[in-house]
Amino acid sequence: MKKDIKPTLLDFAILGLIYDQPLSGYGIRKVFEETAMGNYSNSPGTIYPAIKRLEKFELAKKILQPDTGKTRIQITQKGLLRLKEWLIKPIEKKEVEKKIDELLLRFAFMENLINKEQKIIFLRSFHDLLETYIQDLQTFYGKESNKMPLHGRLAFEHGIESNKTTLKWCKNTISALT
């Protein structure tokens, strides 16, 4: 029996990509290279070992394209189950504070995998945790801004405003889905 793994963020990004359609290793690399997915990696030294790991743990498998004789990577049922579990797992405060890109990646892959109610639960949780985080940032800023150097203060203000923009996006997205 194979030891189970905890997939990495890169693993989930690959699973999300191949859910839509099987891709070659090169095709996966090109998506990472040519889109914002490159934030996760576009290095062959990272992508190909991740694909091998997904295959080893039966989360993905190679399939032969009869028309071309080339192989593509396809998500397995086990991989699909792990991907869905990741998409609907409860959001933690630390993710809102440090991993907003990961939360947005999760949301991006939800479209055809998660029902509307689960998407709304995700977004409301994201909204509520973000609202609390912004209040915490503003409280800290109110107490400490006069001690900050100018550029530090301006950078901190950018962080607050960026989070407010994400909060507005949450509200608008909930409205769009309901």
Automatic annotation (TrEMBL):
Domain Transcription regulator PadR N-terminal: 14-81
Entry-linked InterPro entries: Tscrpt_reg_PadR_N, WH-like_DNA-bd_sf, WH_DNA-bd_sf
Organism domain of life: Bacteria
Pfam families reported in the protein's UniProt record: PadR
Listed name of the protein: Helix-turn-helix transcriptional regulator
Originating species: Lutimonas vermicola
